[in-house]
Amino acid sequence: xxxxxxxxxxxxxxxxxxxxxxxxxxxxxxxxxxxxxxxxxxxxxxxxxxxxxxxxxxxxxxxxxxxxxxxxxxxxxxxxxxxxxxxxxxxxxxxxxxxxxxxxxxxxxxxxxxxxxxxxxxxxxxxxxxxxxxxxxxxxxxxxxxxxxxxxxxxxxxxxxxxxxxxxxxxxxxxxxxxxxxxxxxxxxxxxxxxxxxxxxxxxxxxxxxxxxxxxxx
Length: 218
Hints:
α3 runs antiparallel to α6. The chain has helices spanning 3-37, 64-87, 96-122, 142-149, 156-181, 185-206. It has six helices and no strands.
């Protein structure tokens, strides 16, 4: 093999090797471009739209009216639930229309308790039973329940309806006060929904067969 042939082979090998290196460099550059586009090595890059990054929400701010409204309405609702629980132990045929209403009242009041306690938690405010033992308007107390337990079965429906009516009407008054002087938009909106529910429940209560007409609640 002569020297000219050997030199040509070396030249061809060198050109081929540089072509391989060029292709490799191009592939690496392309990979880096794609990687940077997709966020490789960029932990500080803000999450894209639709990502599952946690979203922080502002806490609920409760003023004095908000706190007083919640702390009063919770035991009022609990008192009515205790009333309904007691009525479940009495003869079922005493007043079917009242029992139908009480089933609806139980559901709404339980849901309201969850919402009210949820707002207290979001506002970092502890639940305090500041009205325990007080004879507050519209509140079903232990004393009124004791009287109901000792009443003849025939008198229970009317007595229970009177307790429920006082509770519903007083809650409407409280809801109006919250919407007028409350500070939390979330609680004021809830008070509006509660007021609507109470107004409907009052109308249903006073439209039962044999019930004397009562003053309308607006």
